[in-house]
């Protein structure tokens, strides 16, 4: 894997001038979160499930909703 500092967006675009847009490929590193702050805030995207779990009276249902929160966070990020 190439470090992000060594790969520049402009250097990739410079080599793609004149190509069809559907043929241009970018490294996966450009789709990653831009900063540590953004990565940390992504953890709070599905916290409404934790609020729902807090309101559940049944322990099993509470555990299911908490598991749903963790699975959404794990699989979607």
UniProtKB/TrEMBL annotation:
It comes from the Eukaryota. GO terms for molecular function: sterol binding. InterPro entries: OSBP_sf, Oxysterol-bd. One of its GO terms (cellular component) is cytosol. This is Uncharacterized protein. It comes from Euroglyphus maynei (Mayne's house dust mite). The lineage of its organism: Eukaryota, Metazoa, Ecdysozoa, Arthropoda, Chelicerata.
């Amino acid at each position: 894997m190439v470090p992000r500092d060594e790969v520049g967006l402009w250097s990739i675009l410079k080599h793609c001038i004149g190509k069809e847009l559907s043929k241009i490929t970018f490294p996966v590193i450009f789709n990653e979160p831009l900063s540590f702050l953004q990565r940390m805030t992504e953890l709070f995207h599905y916290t409404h499930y934790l609020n729902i779990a807090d309101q559940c009276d049944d322990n099993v249902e509470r555990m299911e909703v908490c598991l749903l929160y963790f699975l959404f966070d794990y699989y979607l990020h």
